[in-house]
Design brief:
Length: 159
C-alpha cells in the first residue's frame, strides 16, 4: 500500500500539470509544445499496447491514464484504471488539486480509448508509456531525473 501511495503521488508530482497554493493560478503545458504534442500522439496510437499490458501485467502495477478534466478550468490528471471495457476505460481519481470543486478522490470516469492523453504502467521497474512524463523528465537536470526515477520506482524505460 505504501508503494501504491508513493507511485500515485509521483505521477502527479511529475505530470504535465502543475498547480500553486493559489487556487486561482493554473499552469498547464504550452499547447504549442511540439514534444508534448508528439508524446500525446504516441500514447493515442499505442493504446492497444497499453490494454494488452494491463491484461497481462496490470494487477498490482497500478496502470494509469492521463485525461483532461474540466473542473474550475482544464486540468490534465492521472487516473487509475479500475476496469477496461469494450471501448472505454473505467478510471478513478486518486488525488485532486486544491482548486477542484466538482470532483473528489475516488470519483470514477468512463473514458473512451481515443480521449486519453497518455498511459503508463511500471512493470518490474520498467516504465511502459508515460510519454508526457518523459517529456517533462527530459527537461529536468540529471540530478532531478535520478530523483524522479527513484521516487517512481523506475529503473528502465521501455521503447
Amino acid at each position: 500500500m505504501k508503494l501504491y501511495i508513493l507511485l500515485l503521488t509521483a505521477f502527479l508530482s511529475f505530470s504535465t500539470h502543475l498547480y500553486s497554493n493559489d487556487s486561482n493560478i493554473k499552469i498547464e503545458h504550452l499547447k504549442h509544445d511540439k514534444d508534448m504534442f508528439q508524446a500525446i500522439k504516441k500514447a493515442k496510437t499505442t493504446v492497444n499496447k497499453f490494454i494488452q499490458l494491463c491484461e497481462e501485467k496490470g494487477e498490482g502495477n497500478y496502470p494509469a491514464i492521463k485525461y483532461t478534466i474540466v473542473d474550475n478550468g482544464r486540468t490534465h490528471m492521472w487516473l487509475l484504471i479500475k476496469e477496461i471495457n469494450k471501448d472505454y476505460f473505467e478510471a478513478e481519481l486518486f488525488e485532486t488539486p486544491p482548486y477542484f470543486n466538482k470532483y473528489k478522490v475516488g470519483d470514477s470516469f468512463n473514458i473512451k480509448f481515443d480521449e486519453i492523453m497518455d498511459w503508463m504502467i511500471i512493470v518490474d521497474g520498467t516504465l511502459h508509456g508515460g510519454y508526457t512524463t518523459r517529456v517533462i523528465r527530459n527537461k529536468l537536470s540529471e540530478k532531478k531525473k535520478i530523483e524522479m526515477d527513484e521516487y517512481m520506482g523506475i529503473e528502465r524505460y521501455a521503447n
